[in-house]
Specification:
By secondary structure, the protein is an alpha/beta fold. The protein contains five helices and eight strands, in the order αβαββαβαβββαβ.
Length: 160
């Protein structure tokens, strides 16, 4: 039986607490399908689907970078802009430890502990974004200005 009611995740609780106007969107999750599948299932442009990537800088500190679903992160450029020699993706177990979310269901909202959040500058120019709601197969849509307001997301230019 397909789920018809949106789950109440840590991300949803954080969004409600911050007074964010958002809409829940459930879709059929496919392992390793990524933003391509979620965009297809929801009938939206993959450029509007924002992936939440957990990275680690050379000082060992974790961070989140929010990127368009159809683009990749230049870790070299991100490291340069953040003043680090190196930034690399966390392995799934480490990402889950830092955020409290399973890979494929990672939201920047309601993480286990606050992490620095960076956002590809062009994401903030979109009229609406679709971002993970804290569970596989569950996105929330909202105005991108909420990323800066609620998360303090700092704009960067790290797309490739």
């Amino acid at each position: 039986m397909a789920r018809t009611q949106a789950p109440v995740t840590s991300a949803v609780r954080a969004l409600r607490e911050a007074g964010v106007a958002f809409e829940p969107h459930l879709y059929a999750y496919e392992d390793k399908g990524g933003t391509r599948v979620s965009a297809r299932e929801l009938g939206v442009d993959e450029h509007q689907v924002i992936k939440t990537l957990v990275m680690q800088a050379d000082d060992g500190e974790p961070l989140i970078i929010l990127m368009h679903g159809d683009l990749q992160v230049s870790t070299k450029e991100l490291a340069r802009q953040l003043g680090h020699r190196r930034v690399a993706p966390c392995d799934p177990a480490t990402a889950e430890k830092h955020t409290g979310y399973q890979v494929g269901g990672t939201s920047p909202f309601g993480t286990r502990r606050p992490l620095p959040v960076y956002v590809q500058r062009t994401v903030l120019e979109l009229p609406r974004i679709y971002i993970n709601g804290g569970k596989r197969g569950f996105l929330v849509s909202m105005h991108p200005s909420e990323l800066s307001r609620v998360l303090g997301a700092e704009p960067v230019d790290a797309a490739q």
